[in-house]
Amino acid sequence: PQMAARFDPLSPSCLRALHMIAYAGKKAGIPVTLCGELASMPLEAMVLIGLGYRSLSMSPASIGPVKAMLLELQASAIEKHLHQLLANANGTATLRPAIKAFARDHGVPV
After folding, report:
1. Whole-model pTM above 0.90?
2. CA-CA distance, 51 to 23, in Å (whole number)?
3. Which of 17, 18, 16, 65 has its CA nearest to residue 40?
């Protein structure tokens, strides 16, 4: 609990690791599903889609907000944006502000 505020799952290193997992599964022809709190938040779910995840598991209460986000999202646009962000993320602690700006600019409710 004392360290929870110091970790952001939208840090470049965490996103790179998640991307490597999704890519390895795709390359091997093995479906990769992500479940847990990360997939149940619209902003983070949008990022997971951009990283290549196509199967997310979440609590029933999260389905509505995540579905509303998905209906407005162009997966190719967030995928391209994340690729650019990660390529230029040297020394950046979190990509959260840039990802929120993407959502705002593209009318994606998060």
Report:
1. yes
2. 8
3. 65
